[in-house]
Design goal:
- It contains 13 helices and five strands.
- With 317 residues, it is mostly helical.
- The protein folds into two domains: 131 residues, no CATH class; 108 residues, no CATH class.
- The strands form two sheets. A three-stranded mixed beta sheet has the order 3-5-4. The chain has a two-stranded antiparallel ribbon with strand order 1-2.
Length: 317
């Protein structure tokens, strides 16, 4: 059997571990998640380990070979001794004033050009020092589905996230006409009544899948989902559900297959809070208890008897 090569870590992570900075960045991220207010970050930015890590990170970057207004590149920094370079950057950070940026025009595929600013190599190094400290703090604040100009969050990652939802078992990729009609009618009634004109009467609003809960909420709680940024199914599913990939027997019975399904809910208190905007007639509420041993019944208005006289509304069997 051929030996599989061990996958290499991302080069920036390897560099961070080499200078013992990865644990520092992890701590910054964890503190940012908890909402900590940071102070005296300049001391961390100008520490020798962070400066040398920044130098190592930009050294292999192709852009470091392009000169700024001072006509210097990474090859000029390579001639500096480590201690001299660190001391120079620390002095610059005492009162940092960046140099001018060289403007160049980059050709585009459509024949046009776009402007690009090229900083000096020293400014690039100092900016990398600042980036390394601020990035884990800011990353903790981003929504995890926000893609673009972030580590491991490119357009390709966005496509992969969408395809992951396509392949989850139990999620239909087609739209039923009856479902679309009902959704449009619910939205129309909500607009006429301020979100209070739709009442569902069903014994099994959620019977089989997580998708049914989302669908019922979209029918009855469009405003709440829109307010909380959960109107899109991907956002709703990533907030309240977790997918698990497991090996299961193929329907043909001829072997096994890998299948991804929704396995569990999480953030249940938040989900219950969203659901609490609607009440259900067969649920007992602490503030309105019924007689002992008697289940609460539907209100007259919910059953279509706004007068409450017990008569069956017109047009029913």
């Amino acid at each position: 059997m051929a030996n599989k090569k061990k996958p290499l870590k991302k080069q920036k992570i390897r560099n961070s571990e080499y200078y013992d900075m990865q644990s520092v960045f992890d701590e910054l991220y964890a503190d940012s998640v908890k909402g900590k207010q940071f102070q005296n970050l300049v001391e961390l930015i100008r520490c020798p380990e962070n400066i040398m890590l920044a130098y190592r990170n930009i050294r292999k970057n192709d852009g470091s070979k392009t000169a700024g207004v001072d006509n210097k590149t990474i090859s000029d920094l390579n001639r500096w001794k480590d201690k001299t370079l660190v001391a120079h950057v620390q002095r610059k950070l005492d009162w940092y004033v960046p140099n001018a940026v060289r403007r160049v025009e980059i050709p585009k595929d459509n024949g046009k050009t776009r402007p690009l600013g090229i900083p000096t190599i020293m400014d690039r190094l100092i900016q990398q020092c600042i980036l390394q400290v601020l990035e884990p703090i800011c990353e903790a604040k981003f929504f995890k589905r926000s893609n673009g100009f972030r580590p491991n969050q490119s357009a390709e990652n966005a496509i992969a996230q969408a395809e992951r939802m396509w392949n989850v078992g139990g999620i239909s990729q087609t739209e039923a006409q009856k479902s679309s009609d009902l959704y449009m009618k619910c939205r129309y009634l909500d607009e006429l009544t301020g979100g209070r004109g739709v009442v569902f009467a069903t014994g099994t609003p959620i019977s089989n899948s997580m998708v049914e809960m989302y669908t019922m909420q979209k029918y009855l709680q469009y405003g709440a989902l829109s307010r909380d940024g959960l109107l899109n199914f991907d956002a709703w599913a990533s907030t309240f559900g977790e997918t698990v990939t497991a090996i299961e027997l193929a329907p043909e019975g001829t072997g096994y297959r890998s299948k991804t399904r929704f396995a569990r809910f999480y953030n249940l208190p938040e989900l219950i809070h969203v659901q609490a905007d609607r009440r259900y007639s067969d649920l007992r509420h602490a503030e309105t208890p019924g007689p002992q041993g008697q289940l609460p019944t539907c209100g007259a208005e919910a059953l279509g008897d706004p007068e409450g006289d017990g008569e069956e509304p017109r047009g029913t069997g």
